[in-house]
Write a structure and sequence with these properties.
Layout (H helix, E strand, L loop, with lengths): L1 E3 L17 H9 L7 H11 L4 E4 L6 H13 L16 E4 L3 H14 L7 E4 L5 H10 L3 E4 L1 H9 L10 E5 L1 H6 L3 H9 L6 E6 L4 H10 L4 E4 L10 E7 L5 H12 L4 E4 L3 H13 L4 E4 L5 H12 L5 E4 L14 E4 L6 H8 L9 E7 L4 H11 L5 E3 L13 H4 L28 H4 L49
Parallel strand pairs: 1-8, 2-7, 2-8, 3-5, 3-6, 4-5, 6-7, 9-14, 9-15, 10-12, 10-13, 11-12, 13-14
Helix pairs in contact: 2-3, 3-4, 6-8, 13-14
InterPro entries: DEAD/DEAH_box_helicase_dom, DEAD/DEAH_RhlB, DEAD_box_RNA_helicase, Helicase_ATP-bd, Helicase_C-like, P-loop_NTPase, RNA-helicase_DEAD-box_CS, RNA_helicase_DEAD_Q_motif
Catalytic activity: ATP + H2O = ADP + phosphate + H(+)
GO molecular function: ATP binding; hydrolase activity; nucleic acid binding; RNA helicase activity
Length: about 475
């Protein structure tokens, strides 16, 4: 592995100095690109030279342009105006872990290739395959896809990958975290052996390095920041808050910091839905973004947030990568993430492209282990600050009796409105038998004196001369005086 020593980010890389075609230069000029970021200045020349690359940089530093611009430049020799799908095979494949990241990459690549004849398509799960199938069968040169949906199209024979020349694994660590390694291995087995492979990620774990050794050939390590480092333009604050006070703390910090928009990260899909509903009841325009939402609902929530129609976007880690929202002022870690690497990606949604940002995390007593892992990963000491909460709960309006106090004393004391209601006694029946007291019968004998028993009249019955009298059986024979 060849390593490019990281240098100080010298803002001397201008896009006009790159050996890019006029069509690409025109597109990036319209997008307002002037100076390259450090990762772009280091990676683009290496990719243009044809070497495999391992790019390490925190999110929001322009990794998409770092790999897509040189690949588009190398593919310009294949552009043509033919309508035949055979003249437009897949030549560049970009794999992304999430739908949002794949869609974001596709938007950028289509903007870069705006004035070329290269066709760009994006396929991901959660939506109907029919429109994607029609687009693939018309022919595309650049295909951005998530692993699962790409395998669906391969099995349906909607696309072939035997002419792929360039492969990009974007956010490879995330793909390994969510279990895409078997899918990656299957997809890479369909590709030609002779190809240029680029691997970009914000964090490099031992598993990522092992993956690079298996599928990259003598890669160049392009590293512009210490691995797993957080952006220096992001102000990070950690506050000690109880679980029941997190919502009050969020509302208070939004007021104190005068934040117009923010992403609020939680750890579960159910927690995201519940928190979004609670914040809506608090009067904040809120949308939820999590895995149980359909792709159409997720895209609509993102678009509303980007247009400013939504103040808070409550999301799980599906929004931790791939969301490029310009001038996002802040992110909140409502829940500390289970994986320390996710913390780096969460706060990378703010402070992008050199802008300043704010990352606030709420820490409870049960979060000490996660905080220690974040310290170990970022190699920075975390100071947990106390947060004094104001009582912003709505108060009840005063009653008329309270407002009337002071005008004069009342003649009667005011009764409490919450006095218990005593049920009325049941009516007494007006019956002389029940109302008259008990009277003893003077002729009756006292109950304690034993009265002589009156003998019962003897019943005489004549027996038929044909009926024999029953014979008594002794007790020893089981008769017990029984007559047989």
């Amino acid at each position: 592995m060849t390593e490019v020593t990281p240098q100080a980010p010298v803002p001397g890389g201008d896009f006009s100095t790159l050996p890019l075609g006029p069509a690409l230069q025109r597109a990036i000029a319209e997008m307002g690109y002037t100076s390259m970021t450090p990762i772009q200045a280091k990676a683009i020349p290496v990719v243009l030279s044809g070497r495999d690359v391992m790019g390490a940089a925190q999110t929001g530093t322009g990794k998409t342009a770092a790999f897509s611009l040189p690949l588009l430049q190398k593919m310009l020799r294949h552009e043509n105006t033919s309508a035949s799908p055979a003249r437009h095979p897949v030549r560049a494949l970009v794999l992304a872990p999430t739908r949002e990241l794949a869609d974001q990459v596709a938007v950028n690549v289509k903007a870069y290739a705006k004035y070329t004849q290269l066709r760009v398509a994006c396929v991901f799960g959660g939506i109907d395959m029919a429109p994607q199938t029609a687009e693939l069968r018309r022919g595309v040169e650049v295909l951005i896809a998530t692993p699962g949906r790409l395998l669906d199209h391969i099995q349906a024979r909607n696309c072939t990958l035997n002419q792929v020349e360039y492969v990009v694994l974007d956010e490879a660590d995330r793909m390994l975290d969510i279990g895409f390694l078997p899918d990656l291995q299957r997809i890479l087995s369909y590709l030609p052996k002779q190809r240029q492979t680029l691997l970009f990620s914000a964090t490099f774990s031992p598993e990522i390095k092992k993956l690079a050794q298996s599928y990259l050939q003598d890669p160049v390590l392009v590293e512009v920041a210490r691995p797993n480092a957080t952006a220096t333009t992001v102000e990070q604050r950690f506050y000690s808050v109880d679980d029941d006070d997190k919502r009050r703390a969020l509302r208070q910090l939004l007021r104190e910091r005068s934040l117009s928009q923010a992403i609020v990260f939680v750890n579960s899909k159910l927690g995201a839905a519940r928190l979004a509903r609670a914040l809506e009841r608090d009067g904040l325009r809120t949308a939820a973004l999590h895995g149980d939402k359909s792709q159409d609902e997720r895209l609509k929530a993102l678009e509303a947030f980007k247009r400013g129609e939504v103040e808070l976007l409550v999301a799980t880690d599906v929004a931790a990568r791939g969301l490029d929202i310009a001038d996002l002022p802040a992110v909140f870690n409502f829940d500390i993430p289970f994986n320390a690497e996710d913390y780096v990606h969460r706060i990378g949604r703010t402070g992008r492209a050199g802008a300043s940002g704010l990352a606030i995390s709420f820490v409870t007593r049960s979060d000490q282990r996660q905080v220690a892992e974040i310290e170990k990963l970022t190699k920075k000491k975390i100071e947990i600050e106390p947060l004094e909460l104001e009582d912003d709960r709505p108060r009840r309006p005063r009653r008329r009796e309270d407002e009337a106090e002071g005008e004069g004393e009342r003649s009667e004391p005011r009764r409490s409105s919450r006095a218990p209601v005593v049920p009325a006694a049941p009516p007494v029946p007006d019956d002389p038998i029940f109302s008259r007291p008990y009277e003893a019968d003077p002729a009756a004998a006292p109950g304690w004196e034993k009265q002589p028993a009156t003998p019962a009249p003897a019943v005489t019955r004549s027996l038929s001369p044909y009926i024999k009298p029953k014979r008594k059986v002794p007790v020893l024979l089981g008769g017990a005086g029984r007559k047989v």
